[in-house]
Amino acid sequence: MKNNISKKVAVFGIMGALALSLSFLESLLPALPFLPPGAKPGLANIVTMFAACTLGLPAAIYIAVLKAFFALVVRGVTAFFMSLCGGILSAVAMYILFRFNDKIGLIGISVISALMHNFGQLIVSFFLVGSAAVFGYAPFLIVFGIISGILTGIIFKILLPAVNKIEINTQKGG
Fold first, then answer.
1. In this structure, what CATH number is given to the domain that contains residue 150?
2. Tens digit of pLDDT for each residue in 47-104?
């Protein structure tokens, strides 16, 4: 029993470090003028997808919360709330789709998760700004969410067979 707990802590630590590393690398990307403010490809969501797919909802939420606290430290309170809300909505969507739907596929799950992340950020923006005008970004975020979801879904699909060869042996969902 103790060995399983140690293994789970180690796996969560490695996944957290990988998610934070990918988040940091994304923060180095320059802002592109044709994208919505703060738009990034969401490469760290690959780690969240892996957690939701193989380890369960608590692991996916752990990654989302860890990324949110990283955003708090490096970008401030607004980034924290946007990351937290978007990340949790995205992680829950991933988990539900992995668990209850076998027709959408990895790329479809990634796209829906990216859109949920963007929706969460719009909700936070609405409460922070106090105006429905923030929903004017929705069409841009939908297009960017689809593109970034396809990109992260393809990367996840490519990496999943190699990652599945690693025996993690942690109990799913706990």
1. 1.10.1760.20
2. 999 999 888 899 999 999 999 999 899 889 998 999 999 999 999 999 999 988 878 8
Angle between helices 77-100 and 105-129 (to 10 degrees): 150
Instruction: Confirm whether 54 is domain-assigned.
Output: yes
In this structure, is residue 172 part of a structural domain? no
CA 59 to chain centre: 12
Q: What is the DSSP string of 112-171?
A: HHHHHHHHHHHHHHHHHH-SGGGGGGHHHHHHHHHHHHHHHHHHHHHHHHHHHTS---PP
CA dist 105 → 3, 9, 98, 139, 154 (Å): 34, 29, 9, 24, 11
Note down the domain range covering 85.
2-164
Is residue 10 within 8 A of residue 169, CB to CB? The reply is no
Structural domain count, the chain? 1
146 located within any domain: yes
**Structure token digits, residue 59:** 């692991």
Percentage of residues in the chain having pLDDT higher than 70:
90
Backbone angles phi, psi at 42, to 5 degrees: 80, 35
Using an 8 Å Cβ cutoff, are 108 and 115 in contact?
no
Percentage of the chain lying above the pLDDT 90 cut = 49
- How far apart, in whole angstroms, are the C-alpha atoms of residue 97 and residue 95? 5
Share the mean pLDDT of the chain.
86
